[in-house]
Amino acid sequence: MKKLLMITSLIFVVFLGACSSNFGNMNPFNMMKERPEGSMMMGHGQSDVPLQHSTGENELKIPPVLKSDEEDGNDVYYTIEAQKGQTEIFEGIQTKTLGYNSSFLGPVMKLKKGQTTHIKLKNSLDEETTFHWHGLIIAGDADGGPHNVIQPGEEKEITFEVKQDRATLWFHPHPKGKTAKQVFEGLAGLMYIEDEMDDPYVYGENDFPLIIQDRTFNEQKQLDYEAVKNADGTIGETVLINGTLNPRLTVNKEKVRLRLLNGSNMRSYTFKLSNNQSFQQIASDGGLLNEPVELTELQLTPSERAEIVIDFSKIKENEDVKLIMDDGTILLPFEINDQENIVQKEIQIPQNPVKISEEEMQKEVSKEVVLFGMMHHVTINGKKFDMNRIDFTQKKGETEIWEIYNKPDMMGGTIHPFHIHGTQFKVISINGKEPPANLQGYKDTISLEPGDRAKIAVKFEEKGVFMYHCHILEHEDNGMMGQIKVE
Ligand code: C2O
Ligand code: CU
Ligand code: CU
């Protein structure tokens, strides 16, 4: 009897393991762990592969700021080249990687509101790619969706006027079916929009980008996407920040702005400080919040960004502070210099506050989006992506109310971060309630737990065909994507 029980439970465990992962990098026992309250997730999707702590042995790498090729009055010219290379992520070992204008990741592009920006896009990879500007208000034909393919060895120039206020955006490839792999191998960079408002923070001194990504390396310390990919989202045990293994960050005793980007294929992070100190979130995906929001914890799902300000002058002598996850995993230990900054920085407020008008509040839902499924069976409104099918249309400049529903499945379901290209939307409600204060700014991605229903006000300022999709990159590659034509 006892033996039978053992065999049955063994089969059960093996079955669970098999249905959640192709290569056994997920421990089935972890999946049975209790989930945080309010979560309906059960056996798939956000399965835990624990992240290893950062030992803090390497100072965080700060991406260079991209220099323009030329400036001519209001016109500025840049070149972005997708290329292959080798990077020393582990001491003394070369890892094959991809990058923009470098071997791994990319530079920070700082674009100014009002400027006419020309970007020369070069594909020096062996495969096709696209250059997508995540969060940028741009016409469909320059947005870098799966239609805007650039063949290996080819180049193309796009031109657009920067129309939005300051924000932390990013760019990454978007070729059909290959986005997850190319991002995994290193293609991702940041794009900052700047406007005429003063910014008291200085890049690389007290204003730091943190591109947070989890990866799995093989025994040769290579990134072998085919070997580790998971149809429900590839997850790794090694955290890299700006491509740095075991990072630490040295800061002065002053207010420091961190611009967080979850650049992972599927992992979500809930960030906090190890001493439980609060911090202020000043911006979300699309720019500044109307006012700073005091938080002790902050969740970012794939592709979401947040700008936070941590006041290191409040740290006591010899107190140890680290950026950690809610489960205690150390992501980034801080080393604090004695140097103090006597000039306390003003918290910024936006020039154009985010407001939901009475009219927008009253509008009926005109587009419904149902997110459903797992692994290869993911769909939006029951359909898979088809390059030749336009799923929605909308008029340029007109606001419509979209309702996004994450429909649970028999296993419970999983988080789907829902993203729309070419727009910054406003969240009207989540499950009928006013969204939390830090979701009341501009967003281009909204994360939904199984069973969640959100209403968002969506307006496009530019014409063209735009994608909307789940930002778990493997879900997107597996067809959890639709197209909207804006006329
Ligand atoms: Cu990060 Cu289709 O986008
Ligand atoms: Cu995007
Ligand atoms: Cu998804």
Attribute tags:
9% helix, mainly beta, single chain, 6 helices, disordered N terminus, six-stranded mixed sheet, binds copper (II) ion, binds CU-O-CU linkage
Architecture overview:
- The protein is mainly beta.
- It has six helices and 32 strands.
- The strands form six sheets. A seven-stranded mixed β-sheet has the order 13-12-11-15-20-17-18, with no helix packed on it.
- Mean pLDDT is 91; it is low at 1-46.
- Bound molecules: CU-O-CU linkage and copper (II) ion (CU) (2 copies).
- CU-O-CU linkage binds next to strand 7 and strand 31.
Ends apart, CA distance between termini = 69 Å
Largest sheet: 7 strands, mixed
Give the helix proportion (percent range): under 10%
The number of helical runs is 6
Ligand inventory reads: CU-O-CU linkage, copper (II) ion
Q: Which structural class fits the helix and strand makeup?
A: mainly beta
For the residues shown, what is the average pLDDT?
91
| Radius of gyration computed on alpha carbons | 22 Å
Which regions contain 5 or more consecutive residues with pLDDT less than 50?
1-46
Strand content: 35-45%
- DSSP strand count: 32
Shape: globular
Strands of the widest sheet, in order across it, are 13-12-11-15-20-17-18
What layout of secondary structure does this protein have?
Layout: H1 2-20, H2 28-31, E1 58-59, E2 70-72, E3 75-87, E4 95-100, E5 108-112, E6 116-123, E7 132-134, E8 155-161, E9 167-172, H3 179-184, E10 189-194, E11 207-215, H4 225-228, E12 238-241, E13 244-245, E14 247-253, E15 255-262, E16 269-273, E17 279-284, E18 287-295, E19 298-300, E20 305-311, E21 322-325, E22 330-340, H5 358-362, E23 365-372, E24 379-380, E25 392-394, E26 400-407, E27 416-420, E28 426-430, E29 445-448, E30 453-458, E31 464-470, H6 473-477, E32 481-486
Parallel strand pairs: 1-14, 3-6, 5-10, 11-15, 14-22, 23-26, 25-32
Antiparallel strand pairs: 2-3, 3-4, 6-8, 7-9, 9-10, 11-12, 12-13, 15-20, 16-19, 16-21, 17-18, 17-20, 21-22, 23-24, 26-30, 27-29, 27-31, 28-30, 31-32
